[in-house]
Amino acid sequence: MSDALMSFDDAMAAFDPVLGLEVHVELNTATKMFCGCANVFGSEPNTNTCPVCLGLPGSLPVVNAKAIESAIRIGLSLGCDIAEWCRFARKNYFYPDMTKDFQTSQYDEPIAFDGRVELEVDGETFVIEIERAHMEEDAGKLVHAGGVTGRIGDAEYSLVDYNRAGTPLIEIVTRPIRGTGAKAPAVAKAYVSYLRDLMRALGVSDVRMEQGSLRCDANVSLMPTGETELGLRTETKNVNSLRSIEAALTYEIRRQAAVLAAGGKVHQETRHWHEEGYTTPGRSKEQAEDYRYFPEPDLVPVAPSREWVEELRATLPEAPDAKRKRLQAAWGFADQEFADIVNAGALDLIEATVAAGATAPTARKWWLTELARRANETGVELSELAITPTQVAAVQALVEAGTVNDKLARQVIDGVLAGEGEPAEVVAGRGLAVVSDDGALISAVDRAIAANPDVAAKIREGKMAAAGALIGAVMKDLRGQADAARVRELIVERLG
Ligand code: ADP
Ligand code: MG
Ligand code: ZN
What we know:
This protein is α+β, with helices and mostly antiparallel strands and about 500 residues long. About 40% of the residues lie in helices and about 20% in strands. The model has no long low-confidence stretch (mean pLDDT about 95). It has 3 domains: about 10-310, no CATH class; about 320-430, no CATH class; about 440-495, Arc Repressor Mutant, subunit A. The chain has helices at about 10-15, 65-75, 185-200, 240-260, 305-315, 320-330, 335-345, 345-355, 360-380, 390-400, 405-415, 425-430, 440-450, 455-460, 465-475, 485-495, and strands at about 15-25, 80, 90, 100-105, 110-120, 125-135, 140-145, 155-160, 170-175, 215-225, 235-240, 270-275, 280-285, 295. About 35% of the residues are buried. The strands form 3 sheets. A 9-stranded mixed beta sheet has the order 2-5-6-9-1-10-11-12-13. Strands 4-3-14 form a 3-stranded antiparallel beta sheet, with no helix packed on it. The site of adenosine-5'-diphosphate has 17 residues, from strand 1, strand 9 and strand 10.
């Protein structure tokens, strides 16, 4: 990495960035795009394959109706028109993870086109025009083995896993996005994050960036400030986290600005993002005509009836931004409190916890503190923790009923996560309920008073600040299984 870089501020003073975002979404259909093989992540290599997705001669593809349905719902949710008639096309190129030497895709007849997304970034509204959303199949996956980096450069050999070949993909392509200025990287990040939420709400994809089920190719070019003619762009491939999208675009803007300011030309090429914080050149970019696109003769055209499209429109979920506004108002959180929920990916979980009977503040508390800490420790998403919103609501109900205190509630959560059953079962199984029998509490209080005569004397003199020490002693005696407020009352009664 030896690129000259201009500072971001200087780059913004001299140039206007233009973005182009291509987002690939892997659909979560049960089977693949053109065959009946299972569409799942993480199987043993080459176990989910058949003659069609291996591209064997003579095999014939059949379109997966569920994938078409998802494509239409995605298109509608992006405000697109849905084609009355469209076809698949062969995109010809060679790569060892694609045995047919062509990818079945769509070209000039996409299923969805002319959409529009509005985004709010730092209080400013940006309109992202969607050029098209088209269907295609994913390729297989090359595994470069025997080296240290896992990249092809230092590999001893490469293996091909065709499980992913034929996975249904939707590629969502924006028109060039102008006018974002210094917010360009943040707008790109917000857009991809919006798409992620939208796909999740539609239920059409797992949208796990780290597993590649949501991938973004980020195009950017610069125009000297005041110009309107687009500059040459680079396309940074497969940037696989939201943070990296922002970082990769910031880097490319600074790099291109330095090239242009030195009188050079930007090469129209793909670039690779390295998590260490820089891009390197990939291949110089083909023109569309190099792919020799032509209509796929083995598949019938797709002509969704208008009735079907309208039926699908009726299944669309509430748009993510509308939903956020509604929930924030209903729950009464300040902007920052609410943003923390969204950023933690806890919105749906908290919504479900509230639906199961918890108040919004308590639901927020459990998910953003205790459970977020556990998810962090084990490196999983909140939604992957082995506890459901209903169970979290049940834990909170136990707290409110006085069965457990907050501290014991954390142990109940431990038990649920460890597979010990429902919260009530964990309380019974671990014997966690607070001692609610006053007789037992009073004897514990008396024991604590006897063991701490000087503290007791202070409280008798009215120094209630000292009560903490006695409460602590009682709690310790009862293994934390007491209601601290009730213990305090009893101390006052005994010494008052
Ligand atoms: P490719 O086949 O090169 O991936 P696509 O049309 O699929 O081309 O995607 C290119 C993306 O880049 C689109 O989002 C498009 O709007 C955008 N784009 C095109 N020209 C420019 C440019 N000069 N600067 C920035 N983005 C651009
Ligand atoms: Mg493209
Ligand atoms: Zn198959």
